[in-house]
Specification:
The complex is a heterodimer of chains A (about 100) and B (about 650). With about 100 residues, chain A is mainly alpha-helical. Helices cover about 80% and strands about 0% of the residues of chain A. The longest helix of chain A has about 30 residues. Chain A is elongated and about 50 Å long. The relative contact order of chain A is 0.13. With about 650 residues, chain B is mainly alpha-helical. Helix content of chain B is about 70%, strand content about 5%. Chain B has 26 helices and three strands. In chain B, strand 2 and strand 3 form a beta hairpin. Classes of the chains: A mainly alpha (about 100), B mainly alpha (about 650). The interface between A and B is small, with 12 and 11 residues.
Chain lengths: ~100, ~650
């Protein structure tokens, strides 16, 4: 089995995620794209762990999952609050930080 | 020779000098060892200090009784001082140096600043003068300030002054002297400017304070240099170590101490503040600017005699300053028309005599202090009488508008006349002994100085006669609404008590309690032989005094004095009226350049320093304004820049690894 296939798959997933973050306006979708990027990174970690024959990459993948879970909790809460006040989940809308 | 023998029989000839050379005090005993009232000597300055504190803290509520408390406390100090004096006279001569360490301020390495007092014949003489004359002036002030709404405050400041002055003369080390030195400076400032709603008083107070600071720098530098050289600032340790120091160091210390003394004592070249200080209430002029504070310089020089004895340069400068100021002061006193300013010139001149005495070295220290004590009495008497004259004449100060007051103010005239006898050098009154002692000693050490002193004695007699004649004799030159009246007894009684001192102080200190033998163990004494034998010298000085009086009488009592100062006068009079241009000199040499300097500094500060600071602030603000435009507020654009950054980082790392 050639591990480079997994790396390529990881790169493709990451790229799709990044494009999703940059192009989509819906906050939920952007969020999903971020998750996809994280999981692409996880896949790369696990693959490298396999290639080098140790467990460090796999351990880090677990850490990333935990951080991602925490991030989902906070992120969804923010999106919920924004939706309640502005009736919209477009991330271009709340440009209050402008200038 | 028969005239001389006759003169010897008639004129009192002794001058209070110690009979033989005396051994200096070597042993120091502590107050606890001395026993008696000595452990209580801190009360001397603590009593008036408490008075000042109570009157200032309690404030207006003490208006009704405050002045009585303020009078009682210096009198209490005076009584304690009398007890201490009696006890000290009972001690053997070699033990008359009692120290009392109250507490220690700091232990920093070898620096040991004790709050310690020292009582020896020199300081107790000062304590007697300060508390005695001070108490009388407090009592006099009850009457003088009776109409003033701020009388309680005045008494608080007077008490503060007495406390600081006592601390100055009681201190056992130079650091504590400095505390008292600054304290009297502060009290002088507050009291000269007591009527600060008058512009002239406020300016005079500021001027006195600033010019005193010039001198005080000298004292602080001298203390630092002493600590650097000797490792201590305690009197006895410094004097013991002084012979081991190099003469250059001692000269510098001596000159710095002299700078301090010159500032405080209004001697040339820091003399210009004294005449303006006469803006203060008259009791202040009597106590601070005649009897006590301005003589602190003489005290400092005599106290530091161990240093001055070892530096011929420093002591010669003391002598020169004495000679110069003596002449300047008398000159100014001859020309001023305001009674207090004329007396202030006289004070300068008399302190010049004291400096001359101190500048003679061991031959003259005793006489400097003798004259200082005599001056404290007769000049306080003269000032209080002048105050009484002003009090009875609606605060009129100009002698040209007095004339003939002998009818309206008999008691004041008697007191002033006693002061006149005390200062003008007639036998057997104060100056006959003390001033002639200085002249005698001067003729033995420095003939020129002695001859100048002899001449100035004639000027003294002249200007005193001028004052006496213009004020009390001749025809009245009063303004129409001027109704001269005698002052109340609360003012005249202190004047009369001081008059007794002005008349008989000299006799007392020569024949009853010889001042020379009393002081010599502290100051040292060396007999000096004047170039002129004693009896002809005494006759000459008497003749000069009589000539001065006769000239003054002929010019101001037998002829009419114009009510407006005549303008067609000699250049000498004009210069005297302008205080010998001391103010003009200071203004053109120090004040104007100082103003230009500050103006330039303000300009420089505005242009360059402020410009720099403001420029940096504006630049950063502008930059921020430009950078702000980058912040679009779109989360996605931030995400893009993050991605771009990450890619760039990846490219850089990859490139680095490639090579």
């Amino acid at each position: 089995m050639d591990p480079s296939a997994y790396i390529i798959l990881s790169a493709i997933l990451f790229t799709i995620g990044a494009i999703g973050v940059l192009l989509r306006r819906n906050a939920i979708v952007v969020f999903m794209s971020v998750e996809m990027m994280l999981n692409a990174a996880n896949l790369a970690f696990v693959t490298f762990a396999r290639m080098h024959g140790n467990l460090e990459g796999q351990v880090i993948a677990f850490f990333v999952m935990i951080v991602a879970a925490a991030e989902v909790v906070v992120g969804l809460a923010i999106i919920m609050t924004i939706f309640r006040t502005r009736r919209s989940v477009s991330i271009d809308d709340p440009s209050l930080m402008r200038n | 020779m028969s005239i001389l023998t006759a003169a010897q029989a008639v004129l009192p000839m002794s001058d209070g000098a110690p009979a033989e050379n005396v051994e200096p005090i070597t042993a120091t005993i502590t107050a606890a060892q001395a026993g008696g009232a000595f452990p209580l000597m801190w009360l001397l300055f603590a009593l008036p200090a408490v008075g000042a504190a109570v009157l200032l803290i309690v404030g207006r509520r003490s208006d009704r009784w405050g002045y009585l408390l303020a009078c009682a406390l210096p009198i209490g100090s005076f009584i304690l001082a009398c007890i201490l004096l009696a006890q000290m006279m009972a001690l053997p001569e070699a033990d008359r140096q009692v120290t009392l360490e109250l507490w220690n301020w700091t232990f920093a390495g070898s620096f040991d600043a004790a709050f310690a007092l020292r009582l020896d014949p020199l300081s107790i003489s000062f304590v007697m003068l300060i508390t005695g004359v001070g108490s009388l002036i407090h009592i006099y002030s009850i009457g003088y300030m009776a109409e003033d709404p701020k009388r309680r405050l005045f008494f608080a400041y007077l008490n503060l002054f007495v406390a600081a002055m006592l601390l100055l003369v009681l201190a056992d080390n130079y650091l504590l002297v400095y505390v008292g030195w600054e304290g009297v400076g502060l009290a002088s400032y507050l009291l000269v400017g007591f009527w600060q709603y008058k512009d002239s008083a406020a300016v005079a107070a500021k001027k006195a304070f600033v010019m005193n600071r010039v001198g005080d720098v000298g004292l602080s530098l001298a203390i630092m240099l002493m600590f650097l050289t000797f490792g201590t600032v305690t009197f006895s340790d410094v004097f013991e170590a002084a012979p081991e120091a190099s003469e250059t160091t001692l000269t510098i210390i001596g000159l710095l101490l002299l700078l301090a003394a010159v500032g405080k004592s209004a001697q040339f070249p820091l003399q210009a503040w004294l005449l303006d200080a006469m803006e203060g209430p008259t009791p202040v002029s009597a106590l601070i600017h005649a009897a006590t504070m301005v003589t602190a310089g003489v005290y400092l020089v005599v106290r530091s005699n161990a240093i001055f004895d070892l530096s011929t340069t420093a002591i010669s400068v003391v002598l020169a300053i004495g000679v110069i100021t003596m002449t300047m002061g008398a000159w100014i006193a001859c020309a001023q028309d305001e009674i207090k300013k004329s007396l202030a010139g006289s004070t300068m001149s008399q302190i010049g005599y004291m400096f001359l005495g101190a500048g003679l070295g061991p031959a003259g220290y005793v006489f400097a202090i003798f004259h200082l004590l005599m001056h404290g009495m007769f000049k306080a008497d003269l000032f209080l009488s002048a105050g009484s004259v002003m009090h009875g004449n609606d605060d009129q100060k100009n002698m040209r508008l007095y004339g003939g007051l002998r009818v309206a103010m008999k008691v004041t005239m008697v007191a002033f006349f006693c002061g006149f006898l005390g200062i003008s050098g007639l036998p057997p009154f104060d100056s006959w002994f003390s001033k002639d002692g200085i002249i005698d000693a001067a003729l033995g050490v420095n003939v020129f100085a002695g001859l100048v002193a002899l001449g100035v004695a004639g000027m003294t007699a002249f200007y005193m006669t001028r004052m006496l004649a213009m004020t009390f004799f001749g025809s009245p030159r009063w303004a129409e609404d001027q109704h001269p009246h005698e002052s109340p007894p609360v003012m005249t009684v202190p004047m009369l008590i001081l008059s007794i001192g002005a008349l008989f102080g000299g006799l007392f200190f020569v024949y009853v309690a010889p001042i020379g033998e009393w002081l010599a163990p502290v100051t040292g004494y060396e007999e000096s032989t004047p170039v002129i034998p004693e009896i002809p010298l005494k006759l000459t000085s008497l003749a000069i005094a009589i000539i001065g009086i006769a000239l003054g009488w002929r010019k101001y009592a037998t002829k009419d004095v114009p009510r407006v100062a005549p303008t067609n006068v000699t250049i000498l009079t004009t210069a005297g009226r302008h205080e010998l241009y001391g103010n003009a000199f200071n203004e053109s040499l120090f004040m104007r350049p100082g103003q230009y300097l500050t103006r330039w500094l303000v300009w420089f500060d505005n242009r360059s320093l402020d410009g720099l600071v403001r420029g940096i602030a504006t630049g950063i603000g502008d930059l921020g304004g430009k950078l702000r435009l980058w912040e679009t507020g779109y989360a996605r654009s931030y995400a893009l820049s993050m991605l771009g950054g990450a890619l760039l980082l990846g490219v850089v790392v990859a490139t680095a690894r490639w090579f």
